[in-house]
Design brief:
The complex is a heterotrimer of chains A (about 350), B (about 350) and C (about 350). Chain A contains eleven helices and twelve strands. With about 350 residues, chain A is α/β, with parallel strands linked by helices. Chain A has a domain of about 200 residues: 3-Layer(aba) Sandwich (Rossmann fold), CATH 3.40.50.300. In chain A, a hairpin with a 5-residue loop joins strand 11 and strand 12. In chain B, strands 1-2 form a two-stranded antiparallel ribbon. In chain B, helix 7 packs across helix 9, helix 9 crosses helix 12 and helix 12 packs antiparallel against helix 15. The two termini of chain B are about 15 Å apart. Chain C has about 350 residues and is mainly alpha-helical. Chain C has 14 helices and no strands. Chain C is elongated and about 75 Å long. The two termini of chain C are about 45 Å apart. The chains are: A alpha/beta (about 350), B mainly alpha (about 350), C mainly alpha (about 350). Chains in contact: A-C, B-C. Chains B and C meet through helix 1, helix 7, helix 8, helix 10 and helix 11 of B and helix 9, helix 12 and helix 14 of C.
C-alpha cells in the first residue's frame, strides 16, 4: 500500500474503510467535517478499538460503515464487496451480516414491544425459520446473553435495568448470526460495575459466534482490554493505530499521550515522556485547523504542523502514526523532534 | 432587530395564509354543482329572455350570441338563451351573463381578479335577482359581532385571573379543589348548552333579562343587558381554560427564589401575588388567549343565531340559506384573516414580552 | 391585608406538600369511580347507537299517536266531540273523552288501539311519563327514541369522522416526521393552511358549499380534525425517530414501512389516542353548533344538535324539551373529556417511568 494515508492498511481484511469522508450541512452553506479521509481495516476475528474524545467522529464512522447515512465519499468494503456502491436492495441483503449495538440500551429498545418480539424481529424481517424455530433461536441467544428466556420474553424493556437492556441488544444483534458487530459506546451509559459484565459478555460472544468487532469508545481503559488493534481518532482524522501494547505502552502521537496522561489511574507507563493532560477546547469540526488538526492543542506543534498535514507512517511493528514529530522513533531513522 | 425580523416574518406568514385560505374558499365555492347564473336567474325558470332585454344592467345581445333554448327533454330550439337544466326543469342562464361575471375564465384568473378587487375592499356583488355589493353588508354586521367578542374576552380575563391566582395560592386546599372541578365542568360545557341553561334560569324562570338582542341605538343599557347571557356563555369556557393555565404556571412561579426573596423582604401576600408572581406566570395564558380567537369566532356565530344578533354569524347563516356565495366567501376570508392576524399578534406580543425569547 | 406570619399558621405560598403529591400519584394509579362511570356512559351511548334499529323504541319521526288523537278523531268527523271535550279539559284524558264521545257515536277501532293508554301527558312538549320516558318534543315525537337515534349521529360524527381524521392526520404526520425534507415541507404547509381556518368556520364552509347531509357533516368534521392530528403525530414522530431503536431497526434491514408502522406508530399512538378522545368531544359539540346554523343532518334524522335547536324554539314555554338533549350532550362530552384526561395522566406516568 503506497497510496498516501493508507500505509497502515493490511491485506486479507474482512472490513476495510478507505478515505472515508462524512460531512453534514451545518446551515448557511457551511459543513460539519465529521470524518475526513479516514482509513481503517479489520481482519476476520479481530477486535478494533476506535477511541477519541466525544465529537471526534468515531460514532459517525461506525454509522457510515453501516451506511446510516452513507458516507459523503470514500469506500467501505466488506469481504470484497464495495458497500457504498450497492443498490438499496443489495445493501438491505447485506445488513444481516453487519449488526450494531448502541450507546443507550434503553433508547435502542422500542418501549412498546415485548423483549421476545424485539429479539425475534430481525428473524421476522428476513422471514427466517418457522415461528417455532424463531422462538427457539430467540431463547438460545437470550440464554447465551445471560437472560432467562422464560422471564425475559414476555416483559417490556422498561422492566429491565440498563445492563440487562444492553444484554437484550446484544441478543438482538446476535440473532441473525452476523459476521461483524459495531459496538457504538456499548458500555458508556452503564454503571461501572455493569460495564465489566457487558464487556465479558461481548468477549464470550465473540469467541462463541466467531465475531469480528468494531469497538467504539471514549474510555481508553475499556478499549485496551478488549481490542486486538486500537485506532485513535481526533477531529475526524486518524492519529495513531497499532496493537494496544504499542499504543498504550509507547504512544507515538502527542494526542494519544495526552489522553493517556489524563487517565486518573496511578499507572506506571514506560517509554513515554511526561505528557501534560489535554488543555484547551476541541476546535469546531465546522472549521477545523489547517495542517495537523491537533496542532492547536499540541505542546510540540511547530510551523510545519500548520502547513502540511502529516501522513500516516510506520514507527515499527505495525504501529502507525500521523504526526510530524512522533514520540517514538521510526526504526531506521534518527529522532526528528527535539523536545 | 430580532423582533423586527420576527414581525416581518410573521406578517409574511399572515399574508401567505390569507392568500391560501381565500384561494381554497374560492375553489370550494367554484366546485359547487350548478351555475351561479342559475341562482341569479332563479325567478326566470322556464322563461325565455327576449333579445334586447336588460339583464343585470346589460342588454342581451342576440346577434353576438345566437342564443338558443334547451327544453326539459334536451331538444334545442333557436331564438333564446342557453339554459342550465336541473332534473325536469330548466333555469335560463346566459353566456352573456357568464361572460359578464367572468365565469367563463379559468378559476385562477377569476381568483386573481377577485383578490385584486378584494384588497381594495370590493368583495363583489351578491348572486341575487337584485344584486347588492357585499362589503356594506359586512360592515353593517361587524359592530355587534366585535362588541360581543370583546365583552366575552374581557369577561373571561376578569373571571379567570383572580380565580387562577386564588387557586394557585390555595393549592390542594378546598377552594382550589372546588375551582379545579368547576373549571373541568365548564371546559366540557358547550357554550350553546350553557346559554340554554342561562336562558332557562334568567329568562324563562326569572324573567330577569331579555334574550333577543337590542342594538346600541336603542340604548346602551338595554344593549348590554341583552348581551349578558351570550357573553357569559362564551366566556365561562374560556375562563376555565385560562384559570387552569394561570394556576399551573403560578404554582411553578411561587416556588422560585425571587418569590422567597420578596417574602423575606416582608411584602404583603397580595402584593407578592399580583406584582411579582402574576406577570411571569401569564405567558401560557396570553398565548392561548390569542389562539382562542378562532374558537371564539365559532362560538360567536352560534350565539348570534341563538340571540338574533344581526352580526357576522347571522349574516353568514342567512347567506348560506340563500346560497349567496360571494358573501359567504368574503366572510370566510375575513374571519380567516382575523384569526391568523390574532395568532401573529400573539406571537409578536409573546416575543416582545418574554425576555427569554427575545434574547435567546 | 394580612401579613405573612410564619409563626401562627403555615404559609400557603411556601406550602410544598409532598403528601399531596404522593396522593395524586396514588390516585393516578387507580382510575377511580368517576372514570368507570364515564366509561359506562360512553358504553351506554355506543350500545344505543349500535342497537338502535333493533331496540323496542318508538318512532323517531312519527308523532305519538295520542298526541294526534284529537286530530284523528276530528278526521273521522265523528269524534269532534271527543276532541272538543279533551281540548276544553272537560275530560281528564283522551280515553275518557273517547268514552264520553262513545256515548254518542262509535269511533274507529284502530285509533283506539293506536293509543291504548292515553293520558294528559300524551301530547306535544310533554313531561316524562311511563310511556315517554323523556317526554315528547314540539312535534309530539318520543324524546327518548330520538336521543338514542341521535347517539348514532353523535358517534358517526364523533368516533367515526374524527377517527377518519385521526388516521389521515396520523399518516401525514408519520410520513412527514419520518422522511423529513421536502415531503415534510409540502405536507406541513398544507396542514398549516388548514389550521389557519377557525375549525367551525371551515366546517360551515364545507357543509354550506357541499350541501346539507350526514355524509357532508362527517366529511367536514374529518377534514377539520385532520391537521391537528398531523401536527401532533409529526412532532411525536420527530422525537421517536431520533431514538436508537429506529436506527437499530434500520441496521436489521427493516423497510421504511415496517419502521413507520411497527416501530414508530405504537409509540405515537398513545398521545394520538389521548387527543382523539378530546377531539371526539369537540366534534360532538361542533355538530351541535352546525345544527344551530341549520347545517347539521337534514330532518327527519334526529341528532342531538338538531334536537337542541328544535327545543330551543319552545324554550320559553317548555324548557324541558331543550334540557334533555342538552344534558345528554353535556354528559357525553364531559365523559369523553374525563376519559381523555385520565388517559393522558396515565400515559404521562408511563412515559416518566421509562
Amino acid at each position: 500500500m503506497s497510496e498516501p494515508g493508507t500505509a497502515h492498511l493490511r491485506d486479507d481484511t474482512l472490513l476495510s474503510v478507505e478515505h472515508l469522508v462524512v460531512e453534514f450541512p451545518a446551515g448557511r452553506g457551511r459543513k460539519v467535517h465529521a470524518v475526513s479521509d479516514l482509513s481503517i481495516d479489520i481482519r476476520k476475528g479481530e477486535t478494533l478499538g476506535l477511541v477519541g474524545e466525544s465529537g471526534c467522529g468515531k460514532s459517525t464512522t461506525g454509522r457510515a460503515i453501516m451506511q446510516l447515512p452513507s458516507p459523503t465519499s470514500g469506500s467501505v468494503s466488506y469481504d470484497g464487496t464495495e458497500v457504498t456502491k450497492l443498490s438499496r436492495a443489495d445493501l438491505r441483503r447485506l445488513r444481516p451480516k453487519m449488526q450494531m449495538i448502541f450507546q443507550d440500551p434503553i433508547s435502542s429498545l422500542n418501549p412498546r414491544r415485548k423483549v421476545g418480539d424485539i429479539v425475534a424481529e430481525p428473524l421476522q424481517i428476513w422471514g427466517i425459520g418457522t415461528p417455532e424455530e424463531r422462538v427457539a433461536k430467540v431463547r438460545e441467544v437470550l440464554d447465551a446473553c445471560g437472560l432467562d428466556p422464560d422471564v425475559a420474553m414476555g416483559k417490556y424493556p422498561h422492566e429491565f435495568s440498563g445492563g440487562q437492556c444492553q444484554r437484550i441488544c446484544v441478543a438482538r444483534a446476535l440473532v441473525l448470526d452476523p459476521a461483524v458487530i459495531i459496538c457504538d459506546e456499548p458500555v458508556s451509559a452503564l454503571d461501572v460495575s455493569v460495564q465489566a459484565q457487558i464487556l465479558n459478555l461481548l468477549e464470550e460472544m465473540k469467541e462463541r459466534y466467531g465475531l469480528t468487532l468494531v469497538f467504539i469508545a471514549h474510555d481508553l481503559a475499556v478499549v485496551k482490554n478488549v481490542s486486538d488493534r486500537v485506532a485513535v481518532m481526533y477531529l475526524g482524522k486518524l492519529c495513531e493505530t497499532g496493537t494496544p501494547d504499542d499504543v498504550y505502552g509507547s504512544p507515538a502521537h502527542p494526542y494519544t499521550a495526552a489522553l493517556l496522561a489524563s487517565i486518573p489511574k496511578p499507572e506506571v507507563r514506560s517509554g513515554s515522556e511526561e505528557s501534560a493532560p489535554l488543555s484547551g477546547e476541541l476546535p469546531s469540526p465546522i472549521d477545523p485547523p489547517s495542517g495537523c488538526r491537533f496542532r492547536t492543542r499540541c505542546p510540540y506543534a511547530q510551523d510545519i504542523c500548520a502547513q502540511v498535514e502529516p501522513e500516516v507512517r510506520d514507527v515499527g511493528n505495525g504501529h502507525f502514526v500521523a504526526c510530524h514529530f512522533p514520540l517514538v522513533r521510526r526504526p531506521n531513522e534518527p529522532a526528528t523532534a527535539t523536545f | 432587530m430580532r423582533v423586527a425580523r420576527k414581525v416581518l416574518l410573521s406578517l409574511l406568514r399572515l399574508a401567505g395564509a390569507v392568500v391560501a385560505v381565500s384561494f381554497l374558499t374560492f375553489l370550494l365555492a367554484h366546485k359547487i354543482p350548478g351555475d351561479p347564473t342559475a341562482i341569479i336567474l332563479q325567478d326566470k325558470v322556464n322563461t325565455m329572455v327576449p333579445c334586447g332585454s336588460v339583464l343585470l344592467g346589460e342588454t342581451v345581445d342576440c346577434g353576438a350570441l345566437a342564443p338558443k333554448v334547451v327544453h326539459p327533454r334536451g331538444t334545442e330550439a333557436p331564438g333564446a338563451v342557453t339554459s342550465v337544466c336541473h332534473a325536469d326543469r330548466c333555469v335560463i342562464a346566459s353566456d352573456a351573463l357568464r361572460h359578464q361575471m367572468g365565469l367563463d375564465q379559468p378559476v385562477l384568473t377569476q381568483y386573481v381578479h377577485w383578490a385584486g378587487k378584494a384588497i381594495h375592499g370590493d368583495f363583489g356583488t351578491t348572486y341575487d335577482t337584485q344584486p347588492q355589493p357585499v362589503w356594506p353588508q359586512i360592515a353593517q354586521a361587524l359592530p355587534p359581532t366585535l362588541e360581543l367578542m370583546i365583552i366575552a374576552m374581557v369577561l373571561s380575563l376578569i373571571i379567570s385571573i383572580p380565580l387562577g391566582i386564588y387557586a394557585a395560592y390555595r393549592e390542594h386546599r378546598l377552594g382550589d379543589r372546588i375551582l379545579t372541578t368547576a373549571s373541568f365542568l365548564f371546559v366540557a360545557l358547550p357554550n350553546f348548552v350553557l346559554a340554554i341553561f342561562l336562558i332557562i334560569i334568567f329568562v324563562t324562570w326569572m324573567g330577569a333579562v331579555q334574550s333577543v338582542y337590542v342594538p346600541w341605538s336603542n340604548g346602551v343599557g338595554k344593549n348590554l343587558s341583552t348581551l349578558a347571557i351570550p357573553a357569559v356563555a362564551l366566556s365561562l369556557g374560556m375562563a376555565s381554560v385560562y384559570q387552569r393555565l394561570l394556576r399551573t404556571d403560578m404554582i411553578a412561579t411561587l416556588q422560585e427564589d425571587f418569590i422567597l426573596m420578596a417574602r423575606a423582604k416582608g411584602l404583603p401576600t397580595w402584593r407578592i401575588l399580583t406584582r411579582h408572581a402574576l406577570r411571569p406566570s401569564s405567558f401560557s395564558l396570553l398565548t392561548v388567549f390569542g389562539i382562542n380567537v378562532g374558537t371564539l369566532i365559532g362560538g360567536t356565530v352560534i350565539m348570534e343565531v341563538m340571540f338574533s344578533i344581526s352580526g357576522i354569524g347571522k349574516l353568514i347563516t342567512k347567506s348560506i340559506y340563500v346560497r349567496n356565495y360571494p358573501t359567504i366567501q368574503a366572510i370566510v376570508v375575513l374571519i380567516a384573516a382575523v384569526y391568523v392576524a390574532a395568532n401573529v399578534l400573539t406571537d409578536i406580543f409573546y416575543s416582545v414580552l418574554d425576555p427569554r425569547i427575545r434574547h435567546a | 391585608m394580612p401579613e405573612i406570619s410564619a409563626q401562627t399558621e403555615p404559609d400557603p405560598i411556601a406550602t410544598d406538600s409532598p403528601d399531596a403529591d404522593t396522593e395524586t400519584v396514588a390516585k393516578r394509579k387507580r382510575m377511580g369511580v368517576t372514570f368507570w362511570i364515564a366509561i359506562g356512559w360512553v358504553a351506554l351511548v355506543v350500545f344505543g347507537a349500535i342497537f338502535q334499529p333493533i331496540l323496542p323504541l318508538q318512532s323517531t319521526t312519527k308523532p305519538d299517536p295520542c298526541s294526534t288523537y284529537a286530530a284523528t278523531m276530528a278526521n273521522y268527523g265523528i269524534s269532534g266531540t271527543a276532541a272538543q271535550l279533551y281540548n276544553n279539559s272537560q275530560a281528564d284524558s283522551p280515553r275518557q273523552a273517547q268514552q264520553m264521545a262513545d256515548a254518542g257515536t262509535k269511533p274507529p277501532a284502530d285509533s283506539i288501539s293506536a293509543c291504548p293508554n292515553p293520558t294528559l301527558n300524551s301530547k306535544t312538549n310533554a313531561f316524562p311519563s311511563a310511556q315517554h320516558w323523556l317526554g315528547t318534543d314540539s312535534a309530539g315525537r318520543d324524546t327518548f327514541a330520538r336521543i338514542v337515534a341521535g347517539a348514532k349521529v353523535a358517534l358517526l360524527v364523533g368516533l367515526v369522522a374524527v377517527g377518519v381524521g385521526m388516521i389521515l392526520g396520523t399518516l401525514i404526520g408519520l410520513i412527514a416526521g419520518y422522511f423529513r425534507g421536502a415531503v415534510e415541507g409540502i405536507m406541513m404547509t398544507f396542514v398549516d393552511v388548514a389550521l389557519a381556518f377557525p375549525a367551525l368556520i371551515l366546517a360551515i364552509a364545507i357543509v354550506a358549499f357541499r350541501g346539507q347531509s350526514l355524509f357532508n357533516v362527517c366529511l367536514a368534521i374529518a377534514i377539520v380534525a385532520t391537521p391537528g392530528f398531523a401536527r401532533l403525530s409529526r412532532s411525536s414522530t420527530l422525537t421517536f425517530s431520533e431514538r436508537e431503536f429506529v436506527m437499530a431497526a434500520r441496521v436489521m434491514g427493516a423497510s421504511h414501512r415496517r419502521i413507520i408502522f411497527r416501530e414508530i406508530l405504537p409509540n405515537v399512538a398513545l398521545p394520538v389516542v389521548a387527543f382523539y378522545l378530546l377531539a371526539v368531544a369537540i366534534a360532538i359539540v361542533a355538530e351541535g353548533g352546525l345544527a344551530f346554523l341549520g347545517l347539521s343532518v337534514p330532518p327527519p334524522t334526529p341528532s342531538w344538535g338538531t334536537m337542541i335547536q328544535d327545543g330551543y324554539n319552545v324554550i320559553n314555554d317548555s324548557p324541558f324539551v331543550v334540557m334533555v338533549p342538552s344534558m345528554v350532550m353535556f354528559v357525553t362530552v364531559l365523559a369523553f373529556n374525563y376519559i381523555g384526561d385520565r388517559f393522558r395522566e396515565r400515559f404521562d406516568v408511563k412515559e416518566a417511568a421509562l
